[in-house]
Design brief:
The chain has 14 helices and 22 strands. By secondary structure, the protein is an alpha/beta fold. The protein has two domains: 271 residues, Ribonuclease Z/Hydroxyacylglutathione hydrolase-like (Metallo-beta-lactamase, Chain A); 186 residues, 3-Layer(aba) Sandwich (Rossmann fold). The strands form four sheets. Strands 6-5-4-3-2-1-22 form a seven-stranded mixed sheet, with no helix packed on it. A seven-stranded mixed sheet has the order 7-8-9-10-11-20-21, covered by helices on one side. Strands 14-13-15-12-16-19 form a six-stranded parallel sheet, with helices on both faces. β9 and β10 form a beta hairpin. 47% of the residues are buried.
Length: 465
C-alpha cells in the first residue's frame, strides 16, 4: 500500500514537505523551512517526524527556502539518499543554502552575544556549512520532461512550473502489484503573466493532485494597471524626492523587476537614474538566470540579445551593491533612487536596514511585489495597522506610502489555479496545500462549484494512493 503524509505547507504557506511511502521505499517531496512568526519558525528546530536515515530519496520542486531550506538538517540528522532536482535548480540550490547558513550563523552569533551577557542559554545552529556541503554532494539533476526511474517501481518527471528558474511541477508514477498510480504535485505554480519564464506545463492525467493555493482567495490586478501603478509610483517618488524601497526575493522577483524597470526606461518612463541591487545573492542569482536564457519564453528581441551579456546592459544605472560597506553607503542616500534588497518578506537581510532608514520618511515609497506570510515584517507593513514598528532595535514610524503590486507575483492566482487544474481529463483526488486557511477555503469552494471535491489536509494526515 502506498501512502502520502502531509508534514508541511499544510494550513500555511511555508515548510513544504510530504512523505511518500511504498512497501519498500520512502520518498520526500520537498523539505522546506517554516517562515513567519517566531512560533512558526520554532518548527524548524524540531525533530523530523520520521527517521531521516530511512529516506531513500528527496524530490525537490524548486530552490526557494520554504521548499529546500531544511535539507541540510535532513543530512545532519542522517539522510544519505539522492536529491533529484531540475538542471537549473542545481546551481540555485547551492546559492540559496550557502547564503541561508551564512545568515543563520551571523544572526546567531549576534544573538548569542546578547544571551551570554544576560546569562541565558546559548542557541545552536539549525545546521552548519559542512551540512550544506554534504547535502550538495547528493544532488542529481534531471532535465524537464525526462521520465526517470529514481527507485524501483518509482519514476519521476519534472515539468515547467513558471514560478522561478528551474521550478517544476512534479509527476510521480508509483507501481505496486502491477498497478500504477500517478501523483502530481504542482509545486509553486507560476503566474502566466510573469515576463521571463514559460507558462506552467499543462498536465491532464493524475490519480492524486496536490495543488498550491497561495492566492486561492483572490485574483491579481490586471498586469497593465499594475505596471501603470509602478510607473506612477516611480514618478511620484521622483517628484517628492524620496527613495523607492522594494523588498524582493533574490530568485525570480528581482529578475522580473529588473526586466520591467528596463522596459520603463526604454519608454522614457523611469525617472530614477540609479537603481541599487543591494543583495549579493540576488546578484549571483541574476548571473545564473543570464546563463539560462534558453529557458526564457519571451519575444522581446532586444532583451534576448542583451540579457546573456548581463542585466546592467539591459537596465542602465543598475548598480550592484555587494559589500557591507557599499550597503551602508546606500543607507546614507536620502532620496531619488530605487533600492531593491532582500529578504522578500522583510524578515531578514539588508532590506531591514533600508526600511529603518526610509519607512519614517513621508516622501519615501515602499513597493511590495510578493506574498507576505503571516508573522513577517512585510505582512505587518502591508496590513498597515501599526503606526510604529521595531526594526533592528529601533522604533520606526510608518510614514512612507506603501504599494502592493499583486500582478507582479510569481504565484498563480485563483482563476489561474482553477484554469490549470481544469485541464485534467478526469478529476483526480484533489488536496489543497501551500496556502493560509482563508485562501484554501475559498479555493475549495470554487472547486466545489464545479462538482470537484477539494480536500484540505491537516498536518500529519496520511492518505492512501
Amino acid at each position: 500500500m502506498t501512502t502520502l503524509t502531509f508534514l508541511g505547507a499544510t494550513g500555511q504557506v511555508t515548510g513544504s514537505c510530504y512523505l511518500l511511502e511504498t512497501k519498500h521505499k520512502r520518498v520526500l517531496l520537498d523539505c522546506g523551512l517554516f517562515q513567519g512568526s517566531k512560533d512558526t519558525e520554532k518548527q524548524n528546530a524540531a525533530d523530523f517526524p520520521f527517521n531521516p536515515a530511512t529516506i531513500d530519496a528527496v524530490v525537490l520542486s524548486h530552490a526557494h527556502l520554504d521548499h529546500c531550506g531544511r535539507l541540510p538538517k535532513l543530512v545532519k540528522d542522517g539522510f544519505k539518499g539522492v536529491v533529484y532536482l531540475t538542471e537549473a535548480s542545481f546551481p540555485l540550490l547551492e546559492l540559496l543554502l550557502k547564503d541561508a547558513v551564512h545568515l543563520q550563523l551571523r544572526d546567531m552569533e549576534w544573538e548569542n552575544k546578547k544571551r551570554e551577557r544576560a546569562g541565558k542559554k546559548l542557541l545552536t545552529p539549525l545546521y552548519e556549512l559542512e551540512d550544506v556541503e554534504a547535502l550538495l554532494k547528493l544532488r542529481r539533476p534531471i532535465a524537464y520532461g525526462k521520465e526517470t526511474e529514481i527507485l524501483k517501481n518509482i519514476s519521476v518527471s519534472f515539468h515547467e512550473a513558471g514560478h522561478i528558474l528551474g521550478s517544476a511541477i512534479v509527476r510521480l508514477h508509483i507501481t505496486e502489484h502491477h498497478d500504477t498510480k500517478t501523483l502530481v504535485f504542482s509545486g509553486d505554480l507560476g503566474n502566466p503573466l510573469s515576463p521571463l519564464l514559460r507558462d506552467p506545463t499543462i498536465l491532464t492525467e493524475a490519480d492524486v493532485l496536490l495543488l498550491e493555493s497561495t492566492y486561492g482567495d483572490r485574483d491579481h490586478k490586471p498586469l497593465d494597471s499594475t505596471l501603470d501603478e509602478l510607473r506612477d509610483t516611480l514618478q511620484a517618488a521622483a517628484h517628492s524626492g524620496g527613495n523607492v524601497i522594494i523588498p524582493a526575493f533574490a530568485v525570480g522577483r528581482t529578475q522580473d523587476l529588473i526586466y520591467w524597470l528596463g522596459k520603463l526606461q526604454r519608454q522614457g518612463k523611469l525617472p530614477q537614474q540609479q537603481i541599487y541591487l543591494d543583495s549579493p545573492m540576488a546578484i549571483k542569482a541574476s548571473e545564473i538566470y543570464a546563463d539560462n536564457t534558453e529557458l526564457f519564453n519571451i519575444d522581446d528581441r532586444e532583451f534576448t540579445k542583451i540579457a546573456p551579456h548581463g542585466w546592467q546592459t539591459w537596465l542602465h544605472g543598475l548598480i550592484y551593491s555587494e559589500t557591507a560597506e557599499e550597503s551602508m553607503a546606500v543607507n546614507r542616500i536620502v532620496g531619488g533612487v530605487i533600492i531593491i534588497a532582500g529578504s522578500g518578506m522583510c524578515n531578514g537581510g539588508r532590506i531591514r536596514h533600508h526600511l529603518k532608514y526610509n519607512l519614517w520618511r513621508r516622501n519615501a515609497h515602499i513597493i511590495i511585489t510578493g506574498f507576505q506570510a503571516e508573522g513577517t515584517l512585510g505582512r505587518t507593513i502591508v496590513d498597515g495597522k501599526k503606526k510604529y514598528l521595531k526594526i533592528l532595535g529601533a522604533e520606526v514610524a510608518v510614514a512612507a506610502t506603501v504599494h502592493t503590486l499583486g500582478a507582479l507575483s510569481a504565484h498563480a492566482d485563483q482563476s489561474q489555479l482553477l484554469q490549470w487544474a481544469g485541464h485534467f481529463t478526469s478529476k483526480p483526488r484533489l488536496y489543497l496545500v501551500h496556502g493560509e486557511k482563508t485562501a484554501t477555503l475559498s479555493l475549495q469552494t470554487c472547486f466545489q462549484r464545479t462538482g470537484w471535491s477539494a480536500n484540505i489536509p491537516k498536518v500529519g494526515e496520511t492518505i492512501t494512493l
